[in-house]
Amino acid sequence: MRGSPLRSKASTQVAHYHAQAGDSARAIGYLERAAVAAETRGAAEQSQALWERVQRLASRSGDADAERRAGERLAVLAP
Predict the structure, then answer these.
(1) Could you give the CA distance from residue 69 to residue 36 in angstroms, rounded to a whole number?
(2) Among 70, 53, 47, 59, which residue's Cα sits nearest to residue 15?
(3) How many helices and strands, by DSSP H and E, does the chain display?
(4) Of 63, 15, 19, 60, nearest to 36 (Cα)?
(5) 24 φ, ψ to 5°?
(6) Gap between the Cα atoms of 42 and 68, Å rounded
(7) 10, 12, 62, 77 - which has most CB atoms within 10 Å?
């Protein structure tokens, strides 16, 4: 099921829940999983959008490592 659209959607929904609850670290983790799953199945646009969400959330929460990871993936995905 790795890379499946259902897994990606579930991870995105769980990430939203954690972000709303103020648990940025968990939200970032789930968004990263969803981004990797999207990338694995060839959904580059969705993966890029998810990495952008990771980057924004990481920036707001002060998670420099996650912000760097997102930036690295976005550099690879950028046209």
Answers:
(1) 12
(2) 53
(3) 4, 0
(4) 15
(5) -60, -40
(6) 22
(7) 12
The residue with tokens 């998810």 is 50
Q: Where are the alpha helices (DSSP H) in the chain?
A: 5-20, 24-40, 44-61, 64-77
pLDDT 10s digits, 11-41: 888 887 788 888 899 999 999 999 999 999 8
Interatomic CA distance for residues 19 and 53, integer angstroms: 11
Per-residue pLDDT tens digits for 64-73: 999 999 999 9
Q: What is the pTM of this model?
A: 0.85
Give the whole-angstrom CA distance, residue 19 versus residue 42.
26
8 A C-beta contact, residue 76 and residue 69: no
